[in-house]
Design a protein that fits this description.
The chain has one domain. It has 8 helices and no strands.
C-alpha cells in the first residue's frame, strides 16, 4: 500500500504544481514564475503539515523527486497553457482533484505520525488547501479556495471520511479512494 500512497502523493504534488503554473499563466509570468508558483503550490500544504507535525524532515527535502515533479509540471504547463481555452476553469478542476487527493493523504501522514483523529483531519485539510491559499495570496488575489463554492469545505469530509471508514474496519486500500471520491464529488 505504501507504494500506492507514494504514487498518489507524487500525482497530487504534480496536480497542485499545475494549478500554481496556471495561476502564473493567468498573470502572464515568465517560465521562472511558472516554476516558482508551481513549486509553492505543489509543496506548500505538505510543508506546513510536516512542520506542524514535527516530522524528522520535510518531505520534499528528503525526497527531491517532488521538486522535480513541480518543475516538470510547471514547465509542461508553460508550454501547454497558451493552447487552453479557459485557464481559470482548468485551474478550478485541477484544484478540486488536488484537494481530493491531499485531504486524504495529509490525514494518512498525520495518523502515521501518531496524531489523534481530530488533528489528522485538520492536517488533511491544511495539506489540501495551504499551497493554493499561499499561491493566491502571493499573487495578491482573493484565494480561490476561500471564495464561493465548496473548495475548502470539500477537504474536511474527505479527511474525516477516511478516518470514519478506517474506524469501520475498511482497509486503507478501499478507504483511501472512497474518501478521495467523496472530497472530489463535493
Amino acid at each position: 500500500m505504501s507504494e500506492v500512497i507514494q504514487l498518489v502523493d507524487t500525482l497530487a504534488v504534480g496536480v497542485f504544481a499545475i494549478t500554481g503554473a496556471l495561476a502564473a499563466a493567468e498573470r502572464r509570468l515568465d517560465i521562472l514564475g511558472f516554476i516558482l508558483f508551481g513549486t509553492i503550490t505543489g509543496i506548500g500544504g505538505g510543508t506546513a503539515r510536516d512542520l506542524l507535525l514535527g516530522t524528522d524532515t520535510i518531505f520534499w527535502i528528503s525526497q527531491t523527486r517532488y521538486l522535480w515533479v513541480c518543475i516538470g509540471a510547471s514547465v509542461a504547463t508553460w508550454f501547454l497553457a497558451p493552447m487552453l481555452n479557459s485557464l481559470h476553469r482548468v485551474l478550478l478542476w485541477a484544484d478540486a482533484v488536488g484537494i481530493a487527493l491531499f485531504s486524504v493523504l495529509g490525514t494518512i501522514k498525520a495518523l502515521q505520525w501518531g496524531s489523534p483523529p481530530v488533528v489528522a483531519v485538520v492536517m488533511g485539510m491544511m495539506t489540501a488547501t495551504f499551497g493554493s491559499i499561499l499561491r493566491d495570496t502571493l499573487l495578491n488575489q482573493e484565494p480561490v479556495l476561500l471564495g464561493p463554492g465548496m473548495y475548502v469545505t470539500a477537504a474536511q469530509p474527505g479527511s474525516a471520511s477516511y478516518i470514519g471508514l478506517q474506524s469501520l474496519s475498511f482497509t486503507a486500500a478501499l478507504a483511501m479512494p472512497l474518501a478521495m471520491a467523496l472530497a472530489f464529488a463535493l
